[in-house]
Design brief:
Two copies of one chain form a homodimer. The first copy, chain A, is an alpha+beta fold. Chain A is built from 19 helices and 28 strands. In chain A, the strands form eight sheets. Chain A has a six-stranded mixed β-sheet, sandwiched between helices. In chain A, helix 4 runs parallel beside helix 5 and helix 16 runs antiparallel to helix 17.
């Protein structure tokens, strides 16, 4: 952790610069220019100036004070990190805590200047802050990059070579994808389209990178015209082979840093499709000053969510290998705990090792979560080698992990009984299993959305007054980000129009129960949406599980299962046994047979 | 039906007036000034000029042609009604049929005049049409009431005396309701509030009327200020007692027709809360020219949906009496069919008679639907004395009916087996019953919405590739409209933010299966939303059925029920028996016991 003294000094430097430039308030946000979920160190500006490592932060600094907003997941860690820095923690959503906009409206006076870095801020937040400031009569400078001037030893932007995803792995050429996007542009009346989101760019061009940990993407911007395509990418990322590939698919490359000056001088001949949900504030501002903006979701968002035949087949293959590794891990844990020292950390290492031995393994798809009993009740618990708890021989070890392979991105959670369980643990596990299975085996009509499916999963828990404070499912990329849209299985929010579930989408199914200071349970399997049937009443869909890892028979209390739930559980276990038994021999196989026995 | 010749003549008169006034197109819509679902004859302007009786109509007339838009429910009847009138039927949503807006954009030229009657048009439609016309460069006259001048023998506005709903029936005084609304106005920063929706006005002031068939409301507008309330109502509706009541609750009355001129000359001192979803286009236009408009749902919408203790208790009481009448009706039908002549019409009369004998009966809550076999597959089938089918001694008779009582508005559908059923009929009935029961007995968290609950109901049907083309549930008023908002159980549309289900709401639960030319099945019970429990995870809700009428044991094929569905069915029947057996003796009682036997 950066020392409190250092943070105070950095803020003083910032204030000196603000005074010089006549700035009343600066506002920084923990985002990157690409609206990425995970960001690389180079863009961690709020962390540099505040020391706070939370990933949802707004930092406002004036001549004397500083205020940092973050959400409930980080109240405890942020309070710790901010202690003695002079920064006030603003607990989002808590009574008496103003929103950032309300704060700006109250704090700013006519004639004041608010400075922010619009490149390093998502478009909708930038617009909200500007509106609030202008309502207060203040002026907004939206290209104020304090880090540029003040961040000593700022990490360089990563510059890792990109690689080409061959057509036999992608199932479709970049030419074809560009053509599909251009057709959509034409339909929408757009002459140009700017893509800032890194996974969209990787998908469109069939390239992969490694600029962000666990996300096989590269820093880039893409400008698509009716006949042209301009890619802004760091020179060091493009080797000769890739350069040749770009020439073949008629993609002209430019230096990453030149994107804004290039667009500034670009002559747009018609409307420009830009997705404000996946662009920076400065990008939206720049384009809307130069051309008519069609603010629509990136066409690639929906296209990449519907996996093609190749992607589906490869995913089925790798998910099975991945499932076998997780199943082997469960067997090992059950045998090790009580006999040799196991910590959350060594368990995670074992899981990662098993996964890395799978041919085609590229990387983890996120840092493995390994949490024993009470630790698993904490939403963002991450065991380190130093602080990891020892896994005792009772209760639950929750392991949430996944891999990047040359043919899939996986994600799976199992909660392993490492010894005797309490009656409450069994009840909660059983209801979680019912939730997981009911969603897995549901059938629904085309047009059904994630908030509707969410209730199918939560129903068995609701029967007992139980709920979990996270979504039920997220979309998953193909050799891409482990979280992608547009679909999402979660509670109704009404904030944006929902995307219905569609055939080809790959989505997680991960209900859970979390009992503070006691234990946490989550069961996550990944589901492929497939066509079920077409009748006089319309088209129907269902899911095919991609994940085949046993649930905990020992943790099931059948009094909490309906007869139907029991049928589903036995059916799933039958499938697990059929699909996995070829991977195992001897004692392991014997255990697998027992673990998938009918209940 | 009006003769085709007459329609042609009426359109010629309209065209002559248009020519005189320099109007290129007129647009009429089948709405009333109060955004009512059912409208009185006085406002049926599109019917007068087109002869079309559909209740979702737009009629556009130019110097030579006329075009009438309606939706799929009415394609057949409207085609019939429009034959030889020279009016072209525009089938909404069909390929190649432009929307009204697209038509206006294409048809209108710069300088053209589009005329419509903004008082007799809902605000959002009016705004859409104006935008389309203005995009084409045309001018819009929004106060063109052709009916005023041309409709010979136009029915007067109904002028039936209103009656006062005493506080012991309403459970709350009008003073208290006005005070609650004024508090909400203050919270929203509104100094005035204009209410156009008739059921809201009736609810706020604790008055009832009979200006619209089956809806106990009166034609009125209400202007609420911080201390004043102005009611615009026809003089003939207010007798001495009511006039005295209005004085007591400090409501000043004005003539109904004067509302627009009164508002035109009114001095608004601050923002005005007007609900564009429940106001006419002209009302919105007038107010927004005079004051700042806060376009928010009428505060009374959510308030009246959450029934108070008195309303709940009275509803429970009357729903039981109503259920007993429907149960008796089922018994009679089963005994009559095959022995004496029964038609759909005589069956409906019998149902209505049984209901009218209940003390406290005021009116039907809608025209009873009685449909035998194939007729029940038609969405808007209504048997008349002349065209009614004879009820044979096989298959299903569907009866959907309800009453207005001095303590409830009811609505219930049962599909009665009047003889042997085919295997398909039994399968479809069984799945419909499962759908109905799963929703009835579901438990869910506060915040759950109707589109989420909808999937709970449809799931058992989706398993077999079956769906129904209507919503699953609508809100129901208290001695008020049988359809009311804000809640709705139906598919996700994303058109507007959904209102979550809340304790105190009364909502229908009416899944169905419709097989064209064969039969139609619908089972509708009414549910009261109640608090279930509060735990560390939040507050949970469930439903209490208000309707206790047996389902058809003979129509159940248990192969299509899960074990859990079967438990629910038996539980419901146990409750039906317990609640109803006191109402029956002798043979009827014997039958009730059999009809509710465990399966």
């Amino acid at each position: 952790m950066t020392s409190k003294e250092t943070i105070r000094k950095r803020l003083e430097m910032l204030r000196a610069l603000m005074a010089k430039e006549g700035i009343r308030l600066t506002l920084m946000k923990s985002t990157d220019p690409h609206a990425s979920e995970y960001i690389c160190d180079h863009f961690k500006v709020t962390e540099y100036f505040s020391g706070c490592t939370s990933d949802n932060v707004v930092l406002i600094t004036d001549a004397v004070n500083a205020y940092l907003w973050t959400d409930g997941r980080y109240f405890i860690s942020a309070a710790n990190e901010l202690m003695d820095t002079g920064i006030t923690l603003m607990r989002m959503g808590m009574k008496g805590v103003p929103t950032v906009e309300a704060f700006l409206k109250k704090e700013l006076q006519p004639g004041d200047v608010l400075a922010l870095d619009g490149r390093n801020m998502d478009a909708s937040s930038g617009a909200k802050y500007r509106a609030a400031a202008e309502k207060a009569g203040a002026e907004v400078i939206s290209n104020f990059d304090a880090a540029e001037e003040l961040w000593v030893g700022r990490p360089e932007k990563p510059q890792n070579p990109v690689w080409i995803l061959p057509e036999e792995l992608a199932g479709e050429s970049a030419d074809s994808r560009l053509a599909r996007i251009r057709r959509r542009m034409e339909e929408e009346g757009a002459k140009h389209h700017i893509v800032s989101s890194l996974d969209d760019i990787a998908w469109i061009l069939n390239i992969r990178g490694s600029d962000i940990a666990c996300c096989p993407v590269c820093l880039a911007y893409l400008l698509i015209g009716a006949e042209t395509a301009d890619l802004f990418i760091q020179k060091g990322e493009v080797d000769q082979e890739t350069a040749e590939y770009f020439r073949q698919i008629k993609v002209k490359t430019h230096e990453y840093e030149e994107v804004f000056s290039y667009l500034e001088n670009y002559h747009f001949e018609g409307a420009v499709l830009v997705d404000s949900g996946h662009s920076s504030y400065e990008m939206m501002r720049l384009i809307s000053e130069k051309a008519e903006v069609l603010d629509l979701p990136n066409p690639s968002l929906a296209m990449k969510a519907r996996k093609n035949k190749t992607e589906v087949e490869n995913s089925r293959h790798y998910y099975l290998l991945d499932s076998a590794a997780v199943t082997r891990f469960i067997y090992r844990m059950k045998n090790k705990v009580g006999h040799e020292a196991v910590t959350e950390y060594t368990a995670a290492c074992e899981m990662d090792r098993l996964r890395s031995e799978i041919p085609g393994f590229l990387d983890l798809s996120f840092g493995t979560i390994s949490a024993y009993n009470a630790n698993a009740a904490m939403a963002h618990y991450q065991a380190s080698e130093e602080n990891a708890a020892t896994v005792g021989n009772e209760g639950f070890l929750l392991v949430d992990s996944g891999g990047q392979y040359k043919g899939a991105t996986t994600d799976v959670t199992r909660t392993i009984a490492v010894g005797p369980l309490s009656a409450e643990m069994k009840r909660d596990y059983t209801l979680t299993a019912a939730a997981n299975l009911r969603l897995m085996y549901s059938r629904f009509k085309k047009g059904t959305t994630g908030s509707q499916l969410d209730l199918i999963a939560r129903s068995p828990l609701y029967e007992y007054g139980i709920d979990y404070d996270h979504g039920t499912g997220h979309g998953i990329g193909y050799i891409l980000n482990v979280h992608e849209g547009p679909q999402r299985i979660g509670k109704y929010t009404g904030n944006a129009k929902e995307s219905p579930m569609e055939a080809g989408m790959i989505t997680s199914d991960e209900p859970g129960v979390y009992r503070e200071n006691l234990y946490g349970i989550r069961i996550e399997s990944i589901l492929l949406c497939v066509e079920d049937c077409e009748t006089e009443f319309g088209e129907f869909l269902r899911f095919d599980p991609l994940t085949y890892v046993p649930l905990e028979r020992d943790a099931i209390d059948i009094r909490y299962l309906t007869a139907e739930d029991r049928i589903l559980l036995n059916h799933y276990h039958e499938e697990v046994r059929a699909k996995l038994s070829g991977f195992f021999t001897g004692e392991e196989r014997k255990w697998l047979i027992e673990a998938t026995e009918e209940i």
